[in-house]
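Homework help board

Subject: predicted structure for assignment chain

Our instructor gave us this sequence and asked us to write out the predicted structure in token form, then describe one feature. I got the tokens but I'm not sure how to describe them. Can anyone check?
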Amino acid sequence: MIDLNIDMRQYDCPFIDTTDDADVAFSAVQWQLDTDAKKLETRLIAKGESRGELEDGLRRLRAHDNMNDCYVLSKQDNVAQIGTVIDETNAMRTIQRNGGYITGPFQIENGREHWHIGFDDDEDEDETLAELERHNDFDVENRDQFGATTLFDLLENSNSAMHLLEGCRSLTETERKTFEAASQFGYYETPREVTLEELADHFDISKTGVSMNLRRSERKILDAAMSALSSLDGESIGSEP
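My token output:
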């Protein structure tokens, strides 16, 4: 299986056009393509910079020429869960016609859309990308090729991956920035390439403050890693193979 991560701008997508005009972003949580009716039904999370921007974005989305139906399932402050039905776009049609398929959720923000699409062979991939270039603007940000064994391993251990993802998401913005800077500047190298004092100067806080931020981020990441290890292949930490 070939898996592509694509940054794309479609010129007939209501979600992309809406994020051009309003400070709102969309993340798909469910989608169903009806190839016979040439319609795409989706459930998405819409998030605006403010409640007003969310309302403006939903208004623009409903008014788009390529939007058949748009309804709110739930809403709180500047976040809403919505359902939509749109006409099949050129990119969807091209991918489906050439044997491609969607392999993950898509996100839309600032007039761009991130897609995850898969192919079974190089020829289908090449034909699809060549055709997409005629009507869309895109960049392939990442390309992976998996064999059956690797795919099985990924699916079998998806729970472990979720533990790691949840651990990363649990970091506050301050903890994440401190942890990233420490790693980038060589705090975890042997010997260390940066000291706590230098990190403290970088963030303009005390040595104690930067140390506490690092310890909290390290603990969260370590806890997530230990949880992932404990669920890896259904084995507990320290068990015999």
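Reply (TA_rk): Your tokens look well-formed. For the description, you could write something like this. The first strand starts at residue 2 and ends at 10. That's the kind of observation they're looking for.
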